[in-house]
Amino acid sequence: MDVIEIQQRVHEAWTQQRWDDWARTCANGYQFRLYPTTRLDLEQTLTWSRAWFTAFPDYRDEVAAVYVSNSAVAYELLNAGTSRADLLLFGNTVAPHTPGRRIRLRYVKVLDLNADGQVVQDRQYLDPNTLVAQLAP
């Protein structure tokens, strides 16, 4: 199993918003964890992802570093986007629209893979206060 190839496939499908392709990279029972508080299943993660790109339609990220093992990959991301709408998640405003405000975040993503090379768990580690502070009026 080529873990870096899998990471690239997952990352490209998500950033290019090819949701069917992205969902095919996920195993049955897939879980997304945004530490320290959020835990989502596959459908909830798709909802979250679509909401993110609605709020930040020009969102882009750059992979700064990749670390692999036999069944996992961790990578550091540097991202940026411009607020164009409220970030709405499951009926709640997570971050209000602040016209023209840019965000820049650094975070780490860890993908745990099964024997078939599908993502079982997607963990993200970032400082949510950094996002909130950048969007504050």
Low-confidence stretches: none
Number of DSSP helices? 4
Helical proportion? 25-40%
Cα separation of the termini = 47 Å
Structural class: alpha+beta
Strand % is 35-45%
Mean model confidence by pLDDT: 93
**Number of strand elements:** 8
Biggest sheet: strands side by side, in what order? 2-1-8-7-4-3
Global shape: globular
The helix-strand sequence is HHEEHEEEEEEH
What Rg do the Cα atoms give?
15 Å
The major beta sheet can be summarized as: 6 strands, mixed
Report on this structure:
There is one protein chain. This protein is an alpha+beta fold. The protein has 4 helices and 8 strands, in the order H-H-E-E-H-E-E-E-E-E-E-H. It has a 6-stranded mixed sheet. Strand 3 and strand 4 form a beta hairpin. The longest helix has 14 residues. The radius of gyration is 15 Å and the shape is globular. The model has no long low-confidence stretch (mean pLDDT 93).
Topology (elements, then pairings):
Elements: H1 3-15, H2 19-24, E1 26-35, E2 38-40, H3 42-55, E3 60-68, E4 72-82, E5 87-89, E6 92-95, E7 102-113, E8 119-125, H4 128-135
Parallel strand pairs: 1-8
Antiparallel strand pairs: 1-2, 3-4, 4-7, 5-6, 7-8
Tag the structure with descriptive keywords.
single chain; 137 residues; alpha+beta; six-stranded mixed sheet; two-stranded antiparallel ribbon; 4 helices; 8 strands; globular
What can be said about this structure in brief?
The protein is α+β, with helices and mostly antiparallel strands and 137 residues long. It has helices at 3-15, 19-24, 42-55, 128-135, and strands at 26-35, 38-40, 60-68, 72-82, 87-89, 92-95, 102-113, 119-125.
